[in-house]
Amino acid sequence: MAGQNLFFSKSDLAYAELRDRILFGTLPAGSRLAQYDLAESLNMSITPLREAIRRLSSEGLVTVDTHRDVRVSVMNSNEARQLFEVRLSLDPTAAELAAQRRTDDDIATMQAAVDNLLPVTRQWGEEALTAHRAFHQALYRASHNDVLIRLLDDLWDKSDRYRRLGLELPPGDEPRTRDLQEHHQLVSLIVDGRATEAAQLMRGHITHSLTATAISALEDREGARVT
């Protein structure tokens, strides 16, 4: 995210800042981007901001109409399901590779991350989401597959908007308690080198994730609008 990168141009800075605001919901889905106001707030001209907007448009995070009006892309069940389907493939692969390749440093990082976890509910909000992301990042980085890590970094970024939508739903104490238990089980399996079991548990973990809950809610909302 923005605080973790080195910026080489104002366009890079604008891109990272706007991307963070979109993913964290500071710029809500469907909202119009007041480009000149944003450029002023970022202390830059309109040109680097428009370059950043083109990059965000290529990622599907903003839409630009024929009048150059820019809006944050709305969230929809189709995109959420596509992100979910890719996670179902990549996250178990990362868990399997992590169980085969984890180092002592990886194990220490995962154990520290799992100790910091909180129930992902409205009560804990952003703090819980941040800790949850840090845990999964520690796990998939233990795969030591740079291509997979980059793909999952981007995938998790784009899924964050849907996780935050999931927080608006009834918290469901039992599923969230199960999540915490599964995180601890994943670490144990990876530390023990039980690759196949780690992949299987991760697949089940993703299947019952907050994103899956958000998909169902979005489908219900979209169905209600149609009828």
TrEMBL record:
Listed name of the protein: DNA-binding GntR family transcriptional regulator
Keyword DNA-binding: yes
Cross-referenced InterPro entries: GntR_C, TF_FadR/GntR_C, Tscrpt_reg_HTH_GntR, WH-like_DNA-bd_sf, WH_DNA-bd_sf
Ranges in a coiled coil: none
Xref: SMART domains: FCD, HTH_GNTR
This protein's record includes keyword Transcription: yes
Domain named HTH gntR-type: residues: 8-75
Xref: Pfam families: FCD, GntR
Source organism of the structure: Streptomyces violarus
Entry keyword set: DNA-binding, Transcription, Transcription regulation
GO function terms (MF aspect): DNA binding; DNA-binding transcription factor activity
Xref: PROSITE patterns: HTH_GNTR
